[in-house]
Amino acid sequence: MTPEAETLYAVVQFEGAGRRTVRRVVAPFPDRSAAAVFAADNDLRHFTVGPMAFAVPTNVPFDLPRDAAPARDLPAPREAPG
Predict the structure, then answer these.
(1) What is the bridge-based pairing of β-strands 9-14 and 47-51?
(2) What integer pLDDT is reported at residue 6 of this predicted model?
(3) Tell me: the pLDDT tens digits for 23-73?
(4) Closest C-alpha among 1, 50, 44, 45 to residue 27
(5) What does the alpha-carbon distance between residue 32 and residue 11 come to, in Å, rounded to a whole number?
(6) CA-CA distance, 9 to 60, in Å (whole number)?
(7) What is the distance between the alpha carbons of residues 27 and 82, in angstroms, rounded to a whole number?
(8) Structural domain total, the chain
(9) Is 13 within 8 Å of 21 (Cβ atoms)?
(10) Would residue 33 count as lying in a domain?
(11) Concatenated DSSP letters for 33-79?
């Protein structure tokens, strides 16, 4: 018998109040209170706490042009040169 998967939580910090632009995602946390305490202890502002599935969407929320390359054909993301 396999154990039931536990829900992990994330802190999602936004650019500002009322804005939807995500500045940072910090995860995983075992419960909501641990995530909220982390955000408060680190003086994060404009954040929300939610399940990691909420913090890391698995689909693209906008329509792509018909001639767009499939995701499997796109290069892997890289870190910006420093």
Answers:
(1) antiparallel
(2) 80
(3) 888 988 999 999 999 999 999 999 999 888 776 655 555 565 667 666 666
(4) 50
(5) 9
(6) 21
(7) 24
(8) 1
(9) no
(10) yes
(11) HHHHHHHHHTT--SEEEEEHHHHS-SS-SSPPPTTPPPGGGSPPP-P
pLDDT exceeds cutoff 70 at 14: yes
Torsion angles phi and psi, residue 54, rounded to 5 = -70, -40
In a domain, 72, yes or no: no
| Tokens standing for residue 29 | 């946390």
Q: Which residue's structure tokens are 């929300």?
A: 48
Question: Residue 9 burial (CB < 10 Å; 0-12/13-18/19+)?
Answer: buried
Place of tokens 């946390």: 29
pTM: 0.58
CA distance 35 to 39: 6
Look up the domain containing 40 and give its range: 9-57
Query: 70: which 2 tokens?
Result: 């499939």
**Does residue 70 lie within any of the structural domains?**
no
63 belongs to a structural domain: no
